[in-house]
Amino acid sequence: MAIAAEPRTRAAPAVGGRSFDRPVQALVAGATALLVAFPLAPIIYQSINGRPLYDRVAALTLANYTRVFGSAEFWRVAGLTIIFALLTTVGAVALGAALAVLLTRTDIPLRGPLAGLVVIPFYVSPLVLAFAWRIVFGPQGYLSIWARQLPGAPHWNLDSLAGMTLVAIMYYAPYTYLYCAGSLGLADPQVEDAGRIAGAGPLRTLWAVTLPLLRPALLQSVMLTLVSSIELLSIPLVLGQPANIQVLATYLYTLGVLGTSPDYGAVAAVAVATIALVSGLVFLQERLVRQGRRFVTLGGKATRPRTLRLGPWRWVALAVVLAYILFGIVAPLLGIVAQSLVAILTPLVSPWELRTLDNYRQLFTTAQYAGSIRNSIILSVVGAAVGVVFIALVALTATRSDFRGRRALTYLSLYPRAIPGLIVGIGFLYAFLLIPGLGGIRNTLFALGVAFIMRHLPLGYGALSPAILQVSPELDRAARVGGTTWLGAMRAILLPILRPALFSAYILLFITFLKEYSTALFLVAPGSEVMGTTMIALSRQGETGAIAALATVQMAITLAVLVLSRRLFGVELRR
């Protein structure tokens, strides 16, 4: 059956005056292009410049790439990064998919409460999770010391590649769970029923029918986890650096921050190589997801899927899921909260005897630490608001206008997925050094806010564009036919309808900005620190108690925002 293409509606002139539609759309597209190119161009330029950017005499050369790619250390770090990313991806995707199937398709007890608990790491910063695991399972961790007192108890070393991988799996598994649970919720149960009618048993149906239906979600999860683990800094920094284990992110951090004299050329060359690798993976992700859409089914009738009965095995499955939640999520997070309330967290002395509020006193009486909390809240409140407004204009221009560059605008909006947060910070630093007159805003909250918005532009766009596409174009088209401008139609028709989606996107950006740390590492200075950068600085000083207190404050703010947004406005976040 042929489907006629919808006629394109030309922009209607403003009633009684000139339409500002085209200038606004062009301004939005130009601002997006500038925002994305602003950190990229200086990195590329520095990578082929033999002198630092602040040196006005350039020396174009490929020596930076020759020096980096000729270094055995770089290839060792790159190889270890690939190994770490592959192990993390396999473990996180397998665990997340198994949890999704168990909690949506089987009769495992307590499915509702368990489904809420397994996604907790989604709302927690990976930096906080890394510190939490080290406090409980690290060399001097609470359970590590306790286990060493028991005869025949297993010993482990968290400061290792295996330890880094395990914690990364715990962090990324909820992402796969959310993708797969959402896909299972949309899949037509009649397809599974057909398999059973054909004679397949429950397990055979699960393997031959249900899992293939998950292929798009699994492909999306694989590529997301692979890309994210390549750019991950926090977990390798906290758990790998003590054992001299480096991946690309920590290698960049060491070259650019910890070194006595930063090698700007080498940092830029490594950054460009990382962007090229991640860009290729993102491109591959888009191709694979498009090909995988043929495995998605959505029935016209709402039918409830049959629950797979596990029999006695459901108690075994429950025990496994509870062990994952208890030891992978609850114990580390409770441990970091407990560490914030005691002088020393050890099983050798009762925590009640060592209780203290000194960690919180230190946190709120030290100007630098208290300032980092204030800065994070300001960036989250104001930055997320500005970000939502800007991203809404971008999404509306890309999806609900006849602007000629709308397809390119969509690509630009999603491209920052291929730029790791640490490299975004490097790029903004280099841009401030390169462009005269911008050095004064380099270490300000304004600069951090702009960098955060650029870094998480794809996240906001991905949260808003599906909601926009669900609104029939006939509504704003009717307003346009009546003589209203595009801006008037968006303001009067689309924005009121999209109000819940806008608020959800705001909460999502608020929490994301609150957790952000890697983008800020190259941009902060005394007075502009955020909570994540302060925790990293405290870790170099061995201030475990202050780290725990700051992490607890961050988690408390996140929890309060989630609870208030749900109870007052009925907002629930879904990625």
Task: Tell me which CATH architecture of the largest domain applies here.
Answer: Orthogonal Bundle
Write down the domain tally.
Answer: 2
Low-confidence stretches: 1-17, 292-302
CATH superfamily of the largest domain: MetI-like
Mean residue pLDDT: 82
Helix-strand category:
mainly alpha
Quick structural gist:
The chain is built from 25 helices and no strands.
Key features of this structure:
mainly alpha; MetI-like fold; 2 domains; 25 helices
Walk me through what this model shows.
This protein is an all-alpha fold and 575 residues long. The protein folds into 2 domains: 21-58 and 357-575, Orthogonal Bundle (MetI-like fold), CATH 1.10.3720.10; 62-356, Orthogonal Bundle (MetI-like fold), CATH 1.10.3720. It contains 25 helices and no strands. The chain has helices spanning 21-47, 63-69, 72-105, 111-117, 126-137, 142-148, 161-186, 189-197, 202-213, 215-231, 234-240, 248-258, 264-292, 313-340, 358-365, 367-399, 406-414, 421-434, 445-455, 457-469, 473-481, 486-497, 499-515, 531-541, 544-569. The longest helix is centred in the N-terminal third of the chain and has 34 residues, at 72-105. The chain is globular. The protein starts with 20 loop residues before the first helix and ends in a 6-residue tail after the last helix. The model is unreliable at 1-17 and 292-302 (pLDDT under 50).
Topology:
Blueprint: H1 21-47, H2 63-69, H3 72-105, H4 111-117, H5 126-137, H6 142-148, H7 161-186, H8 189-197, H9 202-213, H10 215-231, H11 234-240, H12 248-258, H13 264-292, H14 313-340, H15 358-365, H16 367-399, H17 406-414, H18 421-434, H19 445-455, H20 457-469, H21 473-481, H22 486-497, H23 499-515, H24 531-541, H25 544-569
Helix pairs in contact: 1-13, 1-16, 1-17, 1-18, 2-13, 3-7, 3-10, 5-11, 5-14, 5-25, 7-10, 7-11, 8-9, 10-13, 12-13, 14-25, 15-25, 16-17, 16-19, 16-20, 16-23, 16-24, 18-19, 20-23, 21-22, 23-25, 24-25
